[in-house]
Amino acid sequence: MSKIAIIGGGIAGMEAAIRLSALNFEVHLIEKSFILGGHVKNWHMLFPDLSSATQLVEQQKNQLRDSVNILLGIEVIRASYTNNKYTLYFSDGSSNTFDAIILTTGFKLFPAQRKEEYGYSIYSNVITSAELEEYFQTDKPLYTKEHRIAERIAFIHCVGSRDDKVGNRYCSKVCCVTAVKQAMETARRNPGAEIYLFYMDLRMFDRQFEDLYFQAQTQYGIRFIRGRLSEVSEKPDSRLFLKFEDTLLGKPLRLTTDMLVLMVGMEPAENTGQLARLFNVPVGNDKFLLPKNLHQYRNLTNQPGIFLAGCVSGPKTIGETLTDARSAALEVYNYLNRN
Amino acid sequence: MKNVGKQLIWQQYQKEIAEDHFFYVRSCIRQNFFPGAEATFLRILKDVLHKDVYDDPAHTTCTGIGYHTDIIPLETTMTVVARQFALMTEKGYKNFIPSCVTSFGLYLEILESWHNHPEVLNQIRKYLKEATGRTFELPENIVHASDIIYKFRREIASKAKYRLVNQQTGQPLRVVEHIGCHYAKMFPHKSVGGAEFPRVLSGIIEEWGGEVIDYPERRHCCGFGFRQYFIKANRGYTFSSVKKKFDSMHPYSPDLIVTNCPGCNVFLDKGQYVISEQEGIVYGANGYGIPVLTFEELAGLIVGFDPWDIGLQVHQVSVEPLLDKMGVWYEPEKKYRGKNNIPLGQPLQPTVLKTF
What we know:
The complex is a heterodimer of chains A (339) and B (356). Chain A is of the alpha/beta class and 339 residues long. Chain A has 2 domains: 172 residues, FAD/NAD(P)-binding domain (3-Layer(bba) Sandwich), CATH 3.50.50.60; 155 residues, 3-Layer(bba) Sandwich (FAD/NAD(P)-binding domain), CATH 3.50.50.60. Chain A has 7 helices and 19 strands. In chain A, the strands form 5 sheets. Chain A has a 7-stranded mixed beta sheet with strand order 11-17-12-13-14-15-16. Chain A has a 5-stranded parallel beta sheet with strand order 5-2-1-9-19, with helices on one face. In chain A, strands 6-7-8 form a 3-stranded antiparallel beta sheet, with no helix packed on it. Chain B is 44% helix and 8% strand. Chain B has 16 helices and 8 strands. In chain B, helix 3 crosses helix 15 and helix 13 packs across helix 14. Chain B folds into 2 domains: 129 residues, Glutathione S-transferase Yfyf (Class Pi), Chain A, domain 2 (Up-down Bundle), CATH 1.20.1050.140; 180 residues, Rossmann fold. Chain B has 356 residues and is of the alpha/beta class. In chain B, the strands form 2 sheets. A 4-stranded parallel beta sheet of chain B has the order 2-1-3-4, with helices on both faces. A 4-stranded parallel beta sheet of chain B has the order 6-5-7-8, sandwiched between helices. Classes of the chains: A alpha/beta (339), B alpha/beta (356). The interface between A and B is medium-sized, with 16 and 19 residues.
């Protein structure tokens, strides 16, 4: 039986493992943390249908067959390739040999403190979209750190994305619709709150995204301002003082808010560069791994037996990630049955 | 507000500041507006810190004001700057300290240009040689004068006669720090602390016992902006900027403003007079303004120099309320006495702003 290593236990890794174990391959799912589920396990609900993220992750875990060998708390530190097989050496001192490898290490969130002017980790009422999503698990209204109900909240799009200053020119794809979804959820929890979204473009590219955007405006009264935030300061009462430009009005403006949510984008996971070196897979200008080509071979790399799935090759929605993982599983199947 | 976040940022913006043997270049305007500041800096370096510093009378303007108002070609500016470096080289120095923040930014900009375009550097070497017969080396270390005071802030504190503490209440004085735009906004990694939360003055203030006020318009320009003030029709921008800053800091009741830039010092100090005349508004307590000191003047006060020797009598806003809070000893009758006790005359009184 052919042996496959899947490196990264997020939803892409789990999905590929589910598909390949169903095809009776011996699958080893390797995750450096001690929990499967990646970023999605911390998410509250998913756009555009507002379904449960936990449920998705739990369903995947339940589908992982007994044939999948799940290795938690382990990292690949070295690799070698001989006779069409890869030997992986792990951080616990063990090693194993595989016929194919899928890299599914995903992404890390942009560290918001790098946008120094937004005051994350300095002003207590500046939070990230990931922190807000985690807070939503509590089902409470949104309070400031001083325990006041937040009456005015601003969401800032493209924090760490499409931003030359931080070195990330690419779009992180999911933040626009996440902001709309989170703004609606905030409006539901804090009725009467004024909610502002500051965007460059609203990239509502997928099915039902536009509907969500429309609903946000018509049912929840969310205000969309096309413009960029230039800086944030704190007032004596801990409210936040925002300076921004409304690019439709062509005017610099100021706004005082109770809270600020930074829609942090995606960056390659910490170990992406290391994996690129281990398996000799090139990275793009965006530092995500490059597939063999961007059309027919999105899951293949320039190395035999090395495949990509999910956000390791660039930002993707959950739907795209799962489809990508299934596609990678099929490519692995074809590769192992090529003779 | 969480200081730990600022500390993480500060860690990313540290730079090498030379220990000794400095070649000092003065500002064009400071000797007119705040004539004691540069003399105080040299006195601190020589007499308090016992450093070797050379103040060359042959050096000239860096042309920064002309450069930023587009009246001097860049090649001319570069050649003048090359001449300053030639003077430094001739005197055997490698560590270059500009007094002025605009000059500091300009020197960095030119060095960066030469680094990226060596052919321009070669051309400028040729121009300087043809015009003056001089050659030059690039500085090994170039920092702003406020970086030097930051580096030696603890040593100065150990020799301090006074602290930034209210002698009546025992509470830290509340201090606004204002950093000149060209100190860090052009090259954040050439600063101490970066452009968003600069550390160079806040580190000094905290070391000397004060509390730094982080107010919403802290980063806003003082309003000088070269084209704003030098073009008469645009001066409204200057004073609206000044007013915006004072309106924003007013709720925090600052005892003192400290700056590291010649222009900022002028507009934050004398701007209070303009606003008081135009708007009838005064921002300090009891009808007085908020005293505005340069970092050198503040260092001079801390180590016990006579306030009138460091030129505090030529400030628009009276410094006496600050001196009284700090417990600084001074002779009021000597405020307008010059060398050998010669009377300098009394300034006219503003209509609204109270002065001593």
